[in-house]
Each structure stands twice: as C-alpha cells, then as structure tokens.
Specification:
The chain is an all-alpha fold. It contains 5 helices and no strands. It is globular, with a radius of gyration of 15 Å. The model has no long low-confidence stretch (mean pLDDT about 95).
Length: about 130
C-alpha cells in the first residue's frame, strides 16, 4: 500500500470518527428516547471509542480498495461511490431489521443518516486523495 493511500485512509478514518461523533451528539436525546441502549446518557467508554476508530478504519480501507478498483479519482466520483455503498449495504441491512425484527424505523433513520454522511465523506476523501 502506498504512503498516499495509507495517508488517505488515516485521514478518512479520523474524519469519519469525528463526523459520526458529532452526528450522535446531535441526535443524543432522540436516541435516548428511542432506545434503552442510549438512555443512560453516559458517553462511550475507552474500549468503545477504540473499537469505533477500528470500525472507521475498516470502512475507510474497504472504500479505498473499492475506489482504486473502480478507478474513482475525484471527490465527486468518490461521493457517488459512497452513496452507492450506502444504498447497497446499510440501507438494505437496516431495512431488513425494520421489516423482520421490528427495529424501530426512527432509530434506523438516525443510524442511516450517520452511515450516509460517513460513507460519502470517506469515499470522497480516499478517491480525491489518489
């Protein structure tokens, strides 16, 4: 992996983590009303923060591979890749949870908003960086 690709993955990882953190702070009260998992009001523990950074790293690395394989080389093409990834994965997976597991659609909508922003941002960064 070239230094440039690795740098784009690191930057995209941090950007995704920060954006996602802001998103969930913005919707904290709504989440607390929708799910007992968020009702405590306590922030995430150290291990949770570390695991979220790892998840963001995996997302950034996968999108970097997809961007390279698809030949995307601009932020706009990357944003389109991120949108496509969002439709194909989080949207489909969470729709299945809503349809088959009685997952609250309002809770799914909060998570889908996070995934949409995160995937578009990360794919735009790793695509433009190449």
């Amino acid at each position: 992996m070239s230094g440039s690709i690795a740098s784009s993955i690191v930057v995209a990882t941090v950007a995704a983590f920060v954006l996602s953190s802001l998103w969930y702070m913005l919707f904290g009260r709504r989440l607390a009303a929708l799910s007992p998992a968020y009702a405590t009001g306590a922030g995430p523990s150290g291990p949770v923060v570390g695991l979220e950074l790892l998840r963001s790293l995996v997302v950034a690395a996968v999108l970097a591979v997809l961007a390279a394989g698809g030949g995307t080389d601009s932020w706009l093409e990357g944003a389109a890749l991120g949108l496509l990834a969002w439709v194909g994965f989080p949207l489909v997976i969470l729709a299945g949870s809503v349809l088959h597991e009685r997952y609250r659609w309002q809770l799914a909508a909060v998570h889908l908003g996070d995934w949409l922003l995160k995937l578009v941002l990360v794919a735009a960064i790793v695509s433009a960086w190449r």
